[in-house]
Design brief:
EAL_sf; about 40% helix; elongated; Cyclic-di-GMP_PDE-like; alpha+beta; about 55 residues; EAL domain-containing protein; two-stranded parallel sheet
């Protein structure tokens, strides 16, 4: 995983496409800084988002 090695050089690591708890736990163990994906939530329309905020 090229992105994870970059973290060792002081760069922030942002992962996209996290879909399972196993992937999330692995990335936490690798000290990833941020992530996004279906594991956290599905895309929503602007109209729905404004209701959530």
């Amino acid at each position: 995983m090229h992105e994870l090695r970059e973290a060792e050089s002081g760069l922030r690591v942002i992962v996209e496409g996290i879909e399972t708890r196993e992937q999330y736990e692995f990335l936490l163990a690798q000290h990833c800084d941020e992530g996004q994906g279906y594991y956290f939530g599905r895309p929503v329309a602007v109209k729905e988002l404004t209701i959530l905020l």
